[in-house]
UniProtKB/TrEMBL annotation:
CC cofactor: Mn(2+)
Membrane-topology descriptor: Single-pass type II membrane protein
PANTHER family: BETA-1,3-N-ACETYLGLUCOSAMINYLTRANSFERASE, HYDROXYPROLINE O-GALACTOSYLTRANSFERASE GALT2
Protein name: Hexosyltransferase
Enzyme class: transferase
Any Pfam family the entry gives: Galactosyl_T
Pathway per the UniProt entry: Protein modification; protein glycosylation
Main subcellular location: Golgi
Keywords: Glycosyltransferase, Golgi apparatus, Manganese, Membrane, Signal-anchor, Transferase, Transmembrane, Transmembrane helix
Compartment(s): Golgi apparatus membrane
Organism, scientific name: Quercus suber
Length: 189
């Protein structure tokens, strides 16, 4: 994703050209556009790759690709998958900086959702997200990770049963041996 600062983009482009392992998608890194970011990642995975799964992570997340692939190998390829550090029955904060109004979220609790720093969805879920977005039929919400949880819940209830796979190994705080993800810059969220 593009950075609002031009010089950051220039350096990143150079790095991508050198190593050939970064794809820069044409979007600006603005909070309001974070919803488009998830959708753009899904589009790239569905339209430009032949991937069976998409792992979304933040730019301060370090991923142990070998460990993640090993875990994925154990999953039936026929199943729709949503894997991450799952939160069950989390309730919105109604006060303070991260407050969520009743207008934004009338329900008591969120659907099960995986923490944002790193989660995996199967490609059929990504496809569903794109087509619902194309029809303007996606429910939107300001928190990226909860929003994906909502979309997966919709998919699960209207399309096909999803295997929800919870693992603590999607680490939120620092580094742990054999974990799937590490946060290089923990924000204490
Ligand atoms: C993805 O594929 C589309 C259509 O083939 C192409 O126009 C686009 O440039 C590709 N995107 C990337 C980032 O390679
Ligand atoms: C996946 O589904 C196909 C057809 O429904 C079936 O033949 C195959 O055995 C399944 N594979 C696994 C690993 O469950
Ligand atoms: C997914 O769907 C199944 C039945 O289709 C339902 O029993 C289950 O509770 C759903 N899971 C979630 C997390 O919504």
């Amino acid at each position: 994703m593009k950075n609002p600062r031009k010089e950051v983009n220039a350096v990143l482009k150079k790095e991508a050209a050198y190593f050939g392992d970064i794809v820069i998608l044409p979007l600006t890194e603005l909070y309001e556009l974070v919803v488009l970011k998830t959708i753009t990642i899904c589009e790239f995975g569905v339209q430009n790759l032949t991937a069976a799964y998409i792992m979304k992570c933040d730019d301060d997340t370090f991923i142990r690709v070998d460990t993640v692939l090993k875990e994925i190998e154990g999953i039936s390829p026929n199943k729709s998958l949503y894997m991450g550090n799952l939160n069950l029955l989390h309730r919105p904060l109604r006060n303070g900086k991260w407050a969520v109004t009743y207008e934004e979220w009338p329900e008591e609790a969120y659907p099960p959702y995986a923490n944002g720093p790193g989660y995996i969805i199967s490609i059929d879920i990504a496809n569903y997200v794109i087509s619902r977005h194309g029809n303007r039929r996606l429910r939107l919400f300001k928190m990226e990770d909860v929003r994906m949880g909502m979309w997966v819940e919709q998919f699960n209830s209207s399309m096909r049963a999803v295997q929800y796979s919870h693992s603590w190994k999607f680490c939120q705080y620092g580094c742990m041996e054999n974990y799937f993800t590490h946060i290089t810059n923990p924000r204490g969220k």
